[in-house]
Amino acid sequence: MLSEINLIKSRVDFIKDTRQKLSQVEHLIGESYRANETFLDKTITSVLRKKYTNKLIQASVMVLFLYANNTVSLLLTKRSEKLNDHAGEICFPGGRWAPEDKSLTYTAFRETHEEIGVNKERIEVIGFLKSIPTLTGYLIHPVVGVLDSDSSIAIDPSEVDSYFLAPLSFFLDTNNKKKKLHHIKSIKIPVYEYQFEDYRIWGATAAIISSLCKTLILNS
To answer: pLDDT (tens digit, 9 = 90+) per residue, 4-48?
Structure first.
C-alpha cells in the first residue's frame, strides 16, 4: 500500500518530480562529518562523534531507480559470501573513494561498473542524499540515479553474488520498516531493518533507504 506519495506514471515526470525533491549539491571529497539526526538515532551519532569525528573513510554508493511497466524499483545487490567485510549483506553498488577518483560521483560510477557491469552512460544522475556515517568507520555519500530499463546487468562474482529489484512502494510503506537493537561493543544500537522477501536489508543500506523515503515524503 502506498499512501504517503503518489508515484508518477510517466518515467519523464517521475525523474523530473524526484529531481526536485533531492539535493542537487554534489558531495565533495573530504567533506566533513555532519550527522543527520533526522534519521540517525542520537545514540549512534553520539558514538560516532566520540570515535571518529573527521576520520571517517570516504565512500559513495549509487542508489539506482529502475522504472519499468509503470513501477519504480530500487536495484540492490547481495555481496559475495567470499568477501572479508560484510559478506552476504544487501547493499547498493558502491565502495570507497580512491585517490585517482576525480569525484565521489565518479567513485559511485566506477564501483557500479565494476560490480554490476553498467556503464555511466546508462545512468542519469538526478540528485544526492545526505551522507551516512557508519559504525565501521565510513562516511557513505549516496548518489541517486535512474537506470535505463533496457540495461543489461553483468555482476562480478568476486564482489557480488546476485542482484534484485524491490518496489519503491514497499519501502515507502512505513509498516515495512522496523527498528531493532543490536549490541556493538556493549552498546545497544538501534538499527533500521527491512525484510523484503528473503532479503534482510539493514544497517547503512536501510538508513539510506529510510533517508530516501523521508526525503520523498517530506518534499512532496
So the answer is: 455 556 888 889 999 999 999 999 887 655 544 444 555 555 665
Strand partners, 138: 57
**DSSP character for 183?**
E
77, 169 Cβ separation under 8 angstroms: no
DSSP 103-114: SHHHHHHHHHHH
Residue 5 lies in a domain: no
Residue 140: CATH number of its domain: 3.90.79.10
Residue 202 lies in a domain: yes
Look up residue 132 and give its three cell numbers: 551516512
pTM of the shown model: 0.88
